[in-house]
Amino acid sequence: MGSAPRAGSNDEAATADAAHRQLDERTDYNRDYDRIVFSSEFRCLHDKTQVFPLSTSDYTRTRLTHSIEASCVGRSLGHQAGLELHAQGVKLVPSDLGTVVAAACLAHDIGNPPFGHSGEDAIQHWVEQRLSPPGEGAQSPFATEAEWRDLRDFEGNAQGFRILNRLQSRERRGGLRYTAATLGAMSKYPRPSVLPGARAKVKGRVSEKKFGYFQDDHDLALEAYRATGLREREPGVFSRHPLAFLVEAADDICYAVIDLEDSAKLGLVPMLRACELLEAVLPEPGRRKPPRHLETRMAQARAGAIGRLIPQCVQAFMDQVHALEEGTAEKSLTSLRPDVESALEAITDFTSEFGYRSERVLQIESAGFKTLGGLLDMFATTVVTDTPNREEKKLRQLLPMECFQRPEYAAADEEKPPKRDEAILRLTPYQRLLCVTDYISGLSDSRAVELFQRLSGIKLPT
């Protein structure tokens, strides 16, 4: 569970990395964690929706605070699981497991576009409405069904893998070259958008619920997953890394508990009812008389619920540790404990009905569809064409040049990088569209709205 080869590295680079590490007291996993914290993509999460978009409250969580909180829970899950394994004679450093899970939790939402899951829906909707799969209708920009499905089913998890392995430190293969263990732990769905033989997803197989890498990143994904030792069930389709189940549990706990607290703080659900739902997670004998002040009661209920759920998920992990290592486990840790599953379902059902579907949330999510769809309308046609008109040439200039620079396409004797149009022509239409989704999904909520307003003439630069 704790091997640390770096994905995408070659012998020369590995030697240089080894020399550098001799002067650095951090472990490889600590370096992974620090690289994520210092990345621009991670900082951008401060203005990306967790549940409540463009909130005017300083209290409401964003994707950044959610990721940090999930990382804290993940560190506890990983460390406690490491202690249990160490007590059974497994040779590992428990704190290393905690660091790997914490790093993976930090990065688990790094690929989310503006407006969170609603932003994913907006990109998927636009592709479905505007672009045809190969062989259907108008000329398609896609060479294969899998390329079309990559964008028709656009997935933040796959975008996260792409960010860590390609978009960061673009000048070298493998990007920042995170350890295979960290990449494995953050990959909840280690499979492509189209399964072999175009078969359907297996019902109940949690690792196939979504997909985890784009066709453009196929080789890097195979290298990373094989370096981690994941079981390859079919070509390109892998079982989950055991630690990915702990990352998922940390996300599930925070998603349920924290989103309920935010809903109560925003006045979308009754504070008293929220406290009662969280307190129901605690065993009856362990419950104390709650404080009278509801804010204090909520803080205690939230901390108590998380403190109760962590050891239960660790126990579920240990109960099926052999199946996890063999790659045959296919159920989330929270679903393996009926008491945990029922408590979290009660919380998420309540929050979904009264929080996620509030009028303000739905209004802004609808506006997000218009925003992201509008930006895709502008930029997608601009890059797909080989002969841009005057307006399209101006729009091309707004896309960062780095979007189109790929080291593997550079000629060995090139003295300087190609010009923008030359760089674009080297890419397939599918790769050009990925450049656009790379750019748009990297925008914060506020930046996406502002850019759309300015390019639409609704709001001009001052």
Automatic annotation (TrEMBL):
The protein, known as: DNTP triphosphohydrolase
NCBIfam families: dGTP_triPase
UniProt keyword terms in alphabetical order: Hydrolase
SMART domains in the record: HDc
rRNA processing keyword on record: no
Gene: dgt
UniProt-annotated stretches for the region Disordered: 1-23
Domain HD: 63-256
PROSITE patterns (UniProt xref): HD (PS51831)
